[in-house]
Fold:
Amino acid sequence: MLARGTPGFSGADLENLVNEAALQAAKLNQDRLDMHDFEYAKDKVLMGRERRSLILSEEEKRITAYHEGGHALAARLLPGSDPVHKVTIIPRGRALGVTMQLPEEDRHGYSRTFLRNNLVVLLGGRVAEEIIFEDITTGASNDIERVTRMARKMVCEWGMSEAVGTLAIGETGEEVFIGREWVQNKNFSEDTARLVDSEVKRIVEDAHSRCRKLLEENLDALHRIAKALLDRETITGEDLELLMDNQELPPMDSNGKPVTTNTKASKTAKPGADFVIEPDTGAQVEKQPDGTASDSAAGSNETGRNSSNENDR
Structure:
């Protein structure tokens, strides 16, 4: 799970992630690291620190909860979509909330069905606002930008529109040393431009209507997801499955971690157990479960950017 959420990380990035996890465990007076500490560290490295100082009104929290709940519900219900890994309404960076999906395997090409479903997931937040509040907010600006860009590529670059056909509309000349579009030649007529615009709008509106139908048919599940987000601020993919089945979520401790029956901390790590933090006795080297040696001292620096598939509000 951790590897799927850290694609492209170098050795230094992984070292930084482990150090952040160790610091988080130390802050909570733990003598061992568990997966929740690594999840916290991964989110911090990828998305930045939690902006706990940002004060949101209860109404804004409620809008954000339903917005992210719409993304999560659409992703859960659509076949072939990447599984939902985590949903949170804790502000990070410029986002008031995040719905994170992690693919189960590497994907190098995308089918038209997958892209159409992805458009529905991206519109889930805006549609949830329309259904619940009968109003819309500026929180979906990034979603709308991504939807429009993806739909236009489907029409102009990937030949996924029956009306336009398998044509590349708008040839581009790219400067290699800049790595971006530099010149775009208009090699199409005004009629073709109007056809492209109408096809882009049709694709987006079709995704919007599918999303609205999907959420309206599962409105009770949307309410349960939003309520859980308001109560807990963050839910996992496992929590989402319980909510879809209308089951109670496991209780949380004061540190926001699921309560387990075995609370006694072991001082020795066994294969498959959590990582244990031992006191630093001056460059002391200890054996890990896999038989390798590692120094128990950990430093800290912060680096990294978000490379996961996310829907930011």
Remarks:
- The chain has a mean pLDDT of 78.
- The longest helix spans residues 190-217.
